[in-house]
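Session log. Operator J.P. requested a structure for one protein chain; no other inputs attached. Running the standard single-chain path with token output.
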Amino acid sequence: MTQKSYVDDNPKYWAGYTNLQRVKHKLIREYLNGWLPKLGYWAGRIVYIDTHAGRGKHDQGELGSPLVALDTFLEHNHLKQILKRSEVVFWFIERDEENLKSLNKEIAKRGDLPLGMKVHSQSGNCFPILRKLIESLQAEGSQLAPAFIFVDPYGFGVPGSVLRELMQFQRVELFFNVIWRELNMALVQGNTNLGMANSLDSIFNGPHWRHKITSNDIDLRVGQTIDTFKEMLGAKWVTPIHMLGNNEKTRYVLAHFTNHNHGRDLMKDCVWKVCPDGKFRVRKFDNPHQLMLFSEGPDWNSLNQWVCEQLHERPHRWKEFHELVRPLIWRVPHVNKAISGLRKNKVILASEYEGRCTPNANPQLSLVQ
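Structure written below.
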């Protein structure tokens, strides 16, 4: 039986390149720059998977996500050291055969790959392909190598069971583009349309979306949706980035799911580079140069207040704040700067340390009485 051939149903996507695509690709580049050496120095094998790889380039020459990922590693300062310790595999899946041919031509332009670096491209629907991989590994009792999986679907109908089982493997992280506008429309119909309800059961791997996603407030509703995905996937951490459409409403949500603290910290670092105002929202036509010129940084008053609230309950070691801040939007360097400023202004006191008062010295911090 001949496998069904798919046709790209949105070829106009490749004609333009907005700030949403730019940010998406910058996040992949920034994250892989940190992820590749972090895993590659010890894992023995690491894998990058792009489930909807596309054709490689936009019409004006901008690179698509597979080439962004590939070039990030080829240009990485630690490429040789990583390949001495680990095999690095890039796996690109694309359902449209003409798109895949175009992508393969672009990959070929990179020339011979370094020893230990492999690129596999495959035509077909990614979800049955990944399901087959999962079943094969489960039958063998094997683990999937540490993997960063970019799921950027053509629609909102993503089978949650496949994503959940991928996340059950150790050291697997998902970067999932949630097609929010269409998914929200489906959720609105879900309670009255049986066919749509069945589709949503598949997406969320069960019916629990019915009592998890209930708010009429659109911002709360999208938050409930991302939290429902997090629970469904069994992820410890989720870092969402809202991609806004022309109406300034959420069009997509790029959501990073991980079970590892370092992954959460690294993605927060990456998001702050593209959203320097700390709002984790990206506009379609923002100028990246203006963003950097007028960046605001964190809300220092809120951060200082949060630090003081923690110390009001009890004294804390400096490094405790590094753990406490992980669920919040602020980064560890933000916390360190806030603590240093509060100490300089004699709002808090640092004691029980040797030498200079630094986070590495881990002094005890308390409010000045």
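Operator note: The longest strand covers residues 250-258.
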